[in-house]
## 1
Amino acid sequence: MINVIWLAMILIGVTIASADCLLDFVDGSILWSPTMEPLVNLTSGVFDSVKFAVTLAIGLVGIMSLWLGLMKIAEKSGLINIVAKAVKPVMIRLFPEVPPDHPAMGSIVMAIAASVLGLGNSATPLGLKAMQELQTLNKVKDTASNAMCMLMAMSTSSVTLIPATIIGIRAAANSTNASEIIAPVILATGISTTVAIIMTKILEKLPRFRYPDTGEESSLPENQQNPSQENA
Amino acid sequence: MFETILNVISALAIPLIIVLIPLYGYRKGLKVYEVFTVGAKEGFDVALRIIPYLVAIFAAISIFRTSGAMQVLSWIMSPLTSLIGMPGDVLPLAFMRPLSGSGALGILSELVKTHGPDSTIGRMASIMMGSTETTFYVLAVYFGSVSVTNSRHAVPAALTADLAGIISAVVLTNVIFG
């Protein structure tokens, strides 16, 4: 899936930029006007954005370390297990493959709580932590498990209580009631989370998305690491 | 009132967590400083591990955006979106949102500036922005960090959820503020 989307985005983009180099579309008529500008812009755009990708990743180190450090304390002290126990009835339905007492459950709860509270860039490290816990349970390491897909879907659709950035933009533009969007956003994200959960549960059963049969544990790709093995 | 409570919660959440977790650990007899640094060390690994995935996804998104493919897509889809009551101006935001957070934020600021934050378009764009996520970024980072390349049904499920968020935003805006 991601292979096709990735390739299609590149192909379509380069094709359109090339066409734009040769032709101009003005009021429904096509004019012949050769210029190299669209392709030149495309190239510099790619270079800028890959540079930004690395800057972004390096920028994550600080906040990532802060959260992973705190999470380690929460884990070793048993705090995460307390949190996980509190929401156990819901979690075992959403993540039936994860043993209820596994550290992954606590991490998932923390990750989802962070995105609900709108902790923004704190949600990412906690989500990654949860992914790594789930990877320790995953039998085919290069393939997403049902639980991983559920975590992904819930993280990208999660209920948002306070869309702080958006309220800020509205306030800056002199809105008479910048935060009037809070209730609709809570409602809309509630709907999208429901859809995410239902869709994940339906799609995971389809033959085309079937999880490969196990027996491949010994043939992991060479770059497999197991970052949370000390939790075992 | 509700709003004030939410604002207080969001301001307090992180400081409270930063205090309570180490305090709890200390009471349980943990060497909190040492344990923290052991966990924190992983932060560097994770950040390094996601770089290739971020580069791949950012390169493709950049090509798609700067080429004007986004506008072409919006133009093709516009007859469909007008059916559900979405003004054409909001459509580029709907397409940009799953791809690029900063791109979507740019479009939102632009829409709010041109049409006003309290216009239908301004409200719809704000609600839509709040109801959706930068799905492809999250996907690249989350799966990249554990070297998962076969994402199975994660993309269709997450995109359907985004679509549900977008449609809900349009309908709710038209119902509440229409």
## 2
Amino acid sequence: MSAPKMRDPIESGCPDGFQYMHPVMRRNYGQWLYHEDPRPGVLVHVARSGEKIWTVRAGTQRILDVFTLRKLMDIGDQFADGYVRFTIRSNIEYMVADGAKVEPLVKALEDAGFPVGGTRNSVTTLSHTQGWLHCDIPGTDASGVVKAMMDELIGEFKSWSMPNRVHITTSCCQINCGGQGDIAINVQHVKPPKINHALVGNICERPSVVARCPVAAIRPAMVDGKPSLEVDEKKCICCGACYPPCPPMQINDHQYTQLAIWIGGNHSNARGKPTFQRLVAAGIPNNPPRWPEATAIVKKILKCYKEGARDWERMNEWVERIGWPRFFEVTGLPFTKYHIDNWRGARNNLNSSTHIRF
Amino acid sequence: MASKHYPTPMLDVLEEGPWPSFISGFKALRDNHPSERIRNTINGLLGQLEHSYETRMGYWKGGTISVFGYGGGIIPRFSEVGHMFPESKEFHTLRVQPPAGNYYTTDMLRQLADSWEKWGSGLQTFHGQTGNIMFIGADSKNYQHFFDEINEYGWDLGGAGPCVRTGMSCVGAARCEMSNCNEQAIHRHLLNNFTDDVHRPALPYKFKFKVSGCPNDCQNSIERADFAVIGTWRDDMKINQEEVKNTIMKKAAEIGKEGDRSAGRQYMFDNVISRCPTGAIKLNDDDTITVDNSNCVRCMHCLNVMPKALQVGDDKGVTILMGGKRTLKIGDLMGTVVVPFMKLETEEDYERIVEMAQNVIDFWAENGLEHERCGEMIERIGLVNFLEGVGIDPDPNMIKQPRNVSYVRMDGWDEAAEEWFNRKRAEKSAA
Ligand code: HEM
Ligand code: SF4
Ligand code: SF4
Ligand code: SF4
Ligand code: SF4
């Protein structure tokens, strides 16, 4: 039998964005002079030519069904000349050349259930990874955590009451596809993988699984006369990286997942150099459908930041100024041995000075 | 006939509260979509997701599928509980490359939505953390048809697996006064040079390009890209002194001290002058400011506070940092400065950056271990070996400080010093 004739792909790669850009943005490309913030969720950019473009930013549920997508497009046709863009945190932005359309656009979005905000010193939409909806090693559901948390932070999304912008992210396992922000809520698996030895020999390319482990905890082994793998459970840090190349190394487990919270990731170079986030809380129950314990801690941290930080201080800068001991004091979070780094280069994170606040 | 709805008591709770609910969107598809196929698929998906919520477990496993002619770009998903929820037992994600900056017309999005509901589940995400549009939920019969259809009108798959991944760029020159470069052009020059490497995974591991137009780095490229391109400038920033004066009075008004010049000045001292990381900015008695440009590190802070009064300079270009990545396998790594400054104006400039990227990927493809990111390779072999491999000279901007461990062989010192002096002479005569 002859194979059916297949169509060759057109390898066009990344499309040209100019065809989708609002004409005012196209005309003034690279010629912007300054911007102002008329109200939360709204920006106005002014070009050297004197032309202006207003942007209205709204939060979405990120995973859009076609009905919701079309609803967002209807609003775009009605108020924004048919041009939209999305931000890195899945907010939608409408650009309009006519300032008189801004308020009606804001109203249309709010009426349709899309909160307007997420600019300047607000808490913008949490970015998230795949979770139970799609990944194969998730400890929890990212979309659900985000929805539950944004329900409670929506006031902060729509206002400018934080000292500086706050980026919150989630990741559904320690590998951390997503979690990099002022506050990062990440899932920890806390039990080594359970190995189904009967299947390993057939399914897994054992050397590459061994190579994948970040702590060299996996060794080839013979189990019941069959080639398999074994894990040194004392070494294993439960990252789950062995699962994708070797599904019989089951990492998902309903009992042994918990949420952990990290803070102070800041990718901007403004004032200081970019920083990675630091562990502040763990052992938080993975408690669907609303994860109230995690939200309570996030809100507590935000409250302390709001009260304690100066204007323009991002979360990492606030903690650097007041010091970690004070951070644990004001937030009431416990400091444990798990906060002390023991990974590569860990001693760089220890204090080798007498800089101590009393 | 649509099958019976699976009960979703836990997911129902996620319809409460003011934030838009993805569950309500799923249910709208399940209940109201004209296509029975979509109604059923989403019913199955909701059933499985509810089961995940009840049992606190994920139930997807991977596999290998791709469209004809490619080796990657699709995340295959097969359900481990397909016997319980057969309607969604195949639920693959197609990763589709968006334009740099994520612009769309509503027409184009409608066209994509039409195609997707013809062949897929009707669920999509703008965008995944790697930057793709994710069309979530095609079965094995239909994904090729969906791809063929959207490929005909201008869309292509992004990467998945060990390959060059979809790039990301900030809004930049299209709408941001901080931009120092043409993010669109950089993004497309780089990405589209590697289209083959996007579609046919054959590298040690993933490789990401991200472009930000200024050091605010809205794309988070330093932390998350193997090859981060950040716009910057090297002459003096521009100061509109009249606007500085206005800012002082405006800030006074914002903090509730309308007309109080000294309160406005205090705000400037507290929030601009004392926050400059290098002490490069000074407020004068007459409410003008002076910037010591030779010490300004272009951190962007003062420009962010006073966007109307301060602008980036004219001699624009980019800084390139390499080797940023997330946790697996040796921990999070920031990118390292490899090119402190590079002009990007002429076609030759663009050829140079593409060639540099090509050298880096070639060197890493040859020397990286399996599943080793570029940054991990740099850590393993040392920056100097990497620089020699890709043909870039050492520069003091690459380090925070020179080495502090004396265990090093230095028998090539004289030649290295001579190289440095030769290079400096050549730069001088070229200037
Ligand atoms: C097989 C299961 C996995 C799935 C389904 C998965 C899914 C994803 C998804 C959906 C994203 C966002 C990508 C996009 O939207 O284009 C992502 C990003 C990412 N993934 Fe995974 N992932 C998996 C495994 C892994 C593993 C094993 C690692 C590490 C070894 C990893 C590391 C990352 C990183 C670092 C990013 C984000 C990087 C960035 O762009 O900032 N993922 N992953
Ligand atoms: S963070 Fe982990 S579980 Fe979540 S999408 Fe990434 S690899 Fe999957
Ligand atoms: S879970 Fe991670 S640390 Fe544990 S054996 Fe697997 S790869 Fe190694
Ligand atoms: S990175 Fe800079 S140029 Fe790009 S959008 Fe952000 S502030 Fe603007
Ligand atoms: S950009 Fe940063 S380093 Fe330069 S003067 Fe302003 S605050 Fe100082």
## 3
Amino acid sequence: MIANKISNNINLKSEALDAVVIRFVGDSGDGMQLTGTQFSDTSAMFGNDVSTFPNYPSEIRAPQGSLYGVSGFQVHIGSVEISTPGDDVDLLVAMNPAGLKTNLYSVKPGHTIIIDSDSFTKKNLEKAQYETNPLRDGSLGNYRVIEVSMSSLTKEALKDIENLDNKTIIRSKNMFALGIVYWMYDRSPEHTIDFFNKKFASKPHLIESNTRVLNAGYYYAETLELIPNAYTISPAKMESGTYRIIGGNTATAWGFLAAAEKSGLELFLGSYPITPATDILHELVKHKHFGVKAFQAEDEIAGVTSAIGASFAGDLAITTTSGPGLALKGEALGLAMMVELPLVVVNVQRGGPSTGLPTKTEQSDLMQAMYGRNGESPVIVLAASTPSNCFNYAYQAAKLALEHMTPVILLTDGYIANGSEPWKIKRVAEMPEIKNNKVTKVTGNWHPYDRDEDTLARNWAVPGTFGLEHRIGGLEKDSVTGDVSHVPENHEFMTKIRAEKIKRVQNYIPDLTTEFAEEGDLLVVGWGGTYGSLHSAVKQLNNEGYNKIGYAHFNYINPLPKNTESVLSKFKKIVVCELNNGQFVNILKMNFNICGLLQYNKIQGLPFGNSELITEFKKIVD
Amino acid sequence: METTAVKKYTFKDFASNQEVRWCPGCDDYVILRAMQKALPEMGVKKEDVVFISGIGCSSRFPYYMDTYGMHSIHGRAPAIASGVKLANPDLSVWVITGDGDSMAIGGNHFIHVLRRNINLNIVLFNNEIYGLTKGQFSPTSLVGQKTKSSPYGNTQQPFQPGELAIGAQARFFARIGGNTPKEMTQMFIDAEKFNGTSLIEVLQNCVIFNDGCYTQFTDKNIREDKQLFVEDGKPMVFGKNRDKGLVLNGLKLEVVTIGENGVEQEDILVHNAKEQDPTMHQMLVRLKYPLVTGIIRRFDDITLEEREDALTKQVKSNSKFTQTDDLFFSGEIYQVN
Ligand SMILES: Cc1ncc(C[n+]2csc(CCOP(=O)(O)OP(=O)(O)O)c2C)c(N)n1
Ligand code: SF4
């Protein structure tokens, strides 16, 4: 006999919701990433706006059932605009006690928890360090707990399929959970069944088993009517167009593919694996059909230097890494800056310093990006703000590098790199032009460091070009001939020219704008990957009537947009919010004479939560 | 690439207008001149030649060549050159490096470029000392050697560059005295012709900080007796009278005299540079007497670019994607109206 038990009141009325946050948690082997991805993809195709965030342990194979081996995937779906994966959870699906223990804090009181009751064995409870069984000791009284014997039901559903080993059977119980959730949110399992058909094309028994379990979960929820099919979320109003769900790292990789095609250059990536940047490498190595040269080097230094070599030889060259890798690339970046070659360096920030928190997010490499080199060494610094706009900023980074002949550091972070959301697909024809500074012929008294009058970018004479043979290097250059020069005044002049070149990029980037208010009591300031959290908090406050709170978000950090000071000066108070100890606020202080900059910082390896921001901003204005 | 015939150059075409700034008497001049003489013989266009160097006295070399070049950062030239070559496989790419540059700070890149077998050429100026930083011991300095940073004698074991290189799967390794320009010139030509990474170790005398470090092998009066200049397919004989040679005694090489103890010309080992098994080449590299110079190892193998190129062609022919739009609109996409 299979036990079913639902605590609290059962409300069978269907309820229309704007948005809902669902978190799937279980052991790292439980397939939670797949479950969550399937749910979000299905919802996106249904027409919802979605935002997702995976959260997995940094150990590859943590002991089964342990607290630190819990893997999670959060999905936020809505009929309204969704800008973050959400923080407070409406539905928690916990496949084991460890998952419940580590995630219970996030569930809103009164909301639902679905658990696989089969996994609440004495052994698993011990591993999760529970002294008593939370399902029996009343500690979950504040929640609507739905206990389902998922393991047994899965076995039952599959008992007459041949050729299935026990491991495969147990592994598919995540599909039982998914089936239940599909029923609850009125989603059809069809899309996931299509997925099985494609994924297991050569293994029909797996199509059969997974489909069966998924349907079993769905029908179980339906026929037993023990689970309220309580929530409907209608499609969101989104701009019309063709969409797909895209993750930040993929979007970054694709932005470079588009830039290479648009600029007519070949794409070269020199990289060394590091979490959470590695997926950009994983993505780009696939695209040999576009002629992408993705070179996995022996270390980060070879990653960046091979890219410098490729840039010298005329490719669109990029290198991807995360904080500790950027530290290693510092010297080479100085060289790239000195030889004035185009190069894009992506730093997917993670918790630092040193090895820090490899799988957690942070914004603490900003100063490293700005100054992590010897000497006066300015480069362009950009930061993407959402998973899908990583595409735009990767493209823009490549464009600026090529048009201004300089290294560009593009900052993303673990939160947006691993998160995903709908992306309205861009055709390359719709993207802005990308010029480059290549010279193909000897004209007059040519020198390698001759500059464009407007941008100050030097020309790009690539090996193989007749008559333009020249030598570059890390030693200071004579401003006219480009030969080595140790003349004191020349060094000062060149230092200033290189700084001015970056400063002039201001003329080629958009002005800073504010959202919700152009002037008023409080301006919330953010940069990079915190966009979603900050934007939705300010939006909520405006909806609550706090209409003198504006929001300004920075994607261009070096140089800052030209109008920055005038935008900021229109607010009585400014609070700069960052996932670090206050790095961007110091850049603002260095550049502008604005007093009373407040700070809100979080340094926990976690993104901002909605309620903490709202409380904080109210405190400032009330 | 154009297919027009390569112009007939002279060594002057490869000399840049920069004043050469090595110490008078430094072997670096010999190497520079040998390179300028070798290039016109290689059949490559001047605009296709690229010199990439790290940091050190030797690494100033690219400035003196009227070709494309980059004087980069300490130890990283092999990685930069790899990027150049992968970006444009038509170029003739040369790495100029010192023993400190390639064996110490750049050790990692040095072994990996050899392992990958990218078609580029490395000239290693081995003066067993750090020149540019004024006289510290290097990874090739001898135990006991007194230098600025080892006033009581160096305690660190040296690398034998050839041994390290062959261990890292170098397919082409040659060694040459810094005072034999004719042979050096030919070696550069041979290196360029070789399809794969070629490494030439030049025993380069630093007159200032390690003067005479190789005279026991390279001094004009004795070098024929102390050096064995190997040539592929030829017996390994040496000596002023060409009467000394190498034979294999058990697992060791032994020097014998032809005509003594019944040793005949036919008993002398014949050099086989093409042998893929590195055992004999490692023995030759390690030998102290005679010091083996010449092209010690040269075996043809597929290069990284060739593998990459074949793979790219294969992927291209199997793919439906010709432009990024094809990728962006593939897979799970959906319409919002
Ligand atoms: C990152 C870095 N560390 C140290 C140095 C200082 N440095 C310059 S050249 C050199 C050693 C050069 O020795 P070697 O490669 O043998 O070349 P040589 O000068 O003898 O030709 C050192 C340590 C540097 N330029 N960069
Ligand atoms: S210090 Fe030595 S290696 Fe450097 S230029 Fe002078 S002689 Fe040559």
## 4
Amino acid sequence: MPADFNWAIGGEAGDGIDSTGKIFAQALSRAGRHVFTSKDFASRIRGGYTAYKVRTAVDPVQSVVDRLDVLIALTPRTIEENLDELHDGSVIIYDGERTTMENVEIPEGMIGLNVPLKRLAEEAGGAIMRNVVALGAACEVADFPIENLDSALEKRFGSKGKALVDNNKEAARKGRDYVADEYDHDFDYELETTDSDYVLLNGDEAIGMGAIAAGCKFYAGYPITPATDVMEYLTGRIEQFGGHVVQAEDELSAINIALGAARAGARSMTATSGPGIDLMAETFGLVATSETPLVVVDVMRSGPSTGMPTKQEQGDLNMMLYGGHGEIPRFVLGPTTISECFWKTVEAFNLAEKYQTPVYIAADLSLAVTEQTFPPETFDMDEVEIERGKVVDEESIEEWQNEKGQFKPHAITDDGVSPRAFPGTAEGAHMSTGLEHDELGRRTEDTEMRVEQVDKRNRKVETAREEENWEPREFGDPDSENLVISWGSNEGAMEEAIEFLEEDRVDVRFLSVPYLFPRPDLTAEVESAENVIVVECNATGQFADVVEHDTLSRVDRLNKYDGVRFKADELADDIKATLQEADQ
Amino acid sequence: MSSDVRFTDFKSDKQPTWCPGCGDFGTMNGMMKALANTGNDPDNTFVVAGIGCSGKIGTYMHSYALHGVHGRALPVGTGVKLANPDLEVMVAGGDGDGYSIGAGHFVHAVRRNVDMTYVVMDNRIYGLTKGQASPTSRKDFETSTTPEGPQQPPVNPLALALASGATFIAQSFSTDAQRHAEIVQEAIEHDGFGFVNVFSPCVTFNDVDTYDYFRDNLVDVAEEGHDRTDYDAAKEKILDASKEYQGVIWQSEKSIPYSEKHGVDADMSQIDDGAPEGAMDLVREFY
């Protein structure tokens, strides 16, 4: 276990929780510490409990744990909400001069630091800086040199002028000094700094960055939590690379605009969450049938219906695997970490164009809104490869024409992939349609052609199965008889859970599956294990069903669907319990 | 583009399955003539269509084309045009496609003012599903699903366009071949979203809005000396339910197409072999 430190700020939405948390996370990252953040927020603009949590260590951290060392509580509810994560010796920083915090009771065994945040902020130049005063206080508690906070404050407020930056620095120092002067206490924490340079980003940002890296020039989307950050990231950035973002009137329009751009030859993408995927389903079938390369991102949240829009779930797997009427060949990629959000997006564009097929990226809320530190070379742009598939030009188009000189965009081929002519290519004019069609793209109900076209489209999946890599990521003890399988954002928590389990002398082999369709054949792994547990954030075990289907074996299920991601220590306990039950 | 393109170059070798006498023949011929007259050829033209009789147009024309899902042709056309402004984009639809299932997209396509042409074959009936009321059917028009008529006022597509901020609104009659082709040509030449509602009679299911009806009631605004750049005059014509008008009824002199407003003018189909130059700056932003 890395010697980690867990910190949070909580209050009401609108209290500036997010930006304050981010400033501290950036300060830690710039001081060469690894950071993993999580957010607890409600679906409203003002009011309602919200919190920003930061876990930090010198070694990499990739999950949250059930523990809080320092809590900045702007409201009494913040303490209540986090009671089970606070422990003996946890420090709670609060402003006892604030009317709502006057009579707050610090739970037994914990250390309450009553810091007049608002008053000190006013002394530094304005009450609005009270959260920064609290950050200064936290620096003193954590023995984290306050100078590290300065550069994060400069980044946050630099564009608003030097005076504001200086006032904020002053506010932070007032918080630090107040704690040092009023509380003569050694808090047992020491946040060591290193010379490393890290970048700090979330999964939505990594998807957007991956899209630009992959040459995506066109994005159309409709705002929806928790996918909106993808559009916000791309807006203003994709233009610098010759691209464009359209905010559509709805999801139906978004996927159709993206489809149009893809037909024009652009690498094109849309992103949404489950309810938007439902709306896009009809066009998704058209994308596949017209053999248009398109990347569709589903940042999953709790469903069904509007569900819990700001909470975690992995409930859309079946929708992505099977959604839509008829049978739709597709690829479904599931990034398992924030950095993989970048690389899987790059891969998605290559697969989409090589196979002229829609590709789902199955991300989830925990990946999307969580920020994590990485060495910048994790996103080495020189490693990005672009494969555009069978695009024909004016010379090569001839071999794909029939005897009348007509281009065959849906030519029957051995690998299932037909030639593609961007509009504007001479002699390439053709139509495509969602109707069943012949090689020219024209409607047909001919029984033989119907079967040939269906087989051809499905053959693309078979070709890809053979030509591409669909391997899982492997962790833990390769010889263990306990096999844990998961997909999506559970990887980080599971990786750390393995370490907790090791402490308790429980060994596990862990396979994290980043490809949901096509996906690795896990039959041998499942058969050779004594106990198999599939871990996922949904109630029915959608991936467990798939594993059982693929391997013809029964598996145990560990499901979490309360809207909160797996925490590493909690997950370790759950796995132990599941293994014990299996042994009985 | 070449100057020797004839309108028949836009014709595919597929025989239309429209009913004999269908207004859509004339509508399509006019579109092909307008495309040829404006110097386009099939390889730089993209036609998008939705579902219904109108949706078949991509099959009978020769160009790059996509036949999409019901009501969503305008978004597709928007994506095509923005990703490659060099293409001439023409979107075709019917009254059900455009004013019912696609009404929301219509409003927003008009607002965006993307430089493309939208031709609606308005026959005031659902033809391909065999004769149900459409959004432009008359209030008392009896059909299999509305035995006493819809009992709702029909959508006024031109008014909807005007209220949404349209920069070009026209109406034509498919069988008045010369005039119809001229009007579509003006829509193509318009700098922005060119909208043409075409009376395109359904000879099988609509015995009210017939060729004879339109011949008797059609008034050409050009012959009336109508000033298309006069907003109030345009509004008056558009809201006048007593006549059927033909011609360009409204054209804004201040139209700024989407591409100009947003600086979208590159062909996006061409990309680098690897990540674009300067992409590493995207990573550094996260320090």
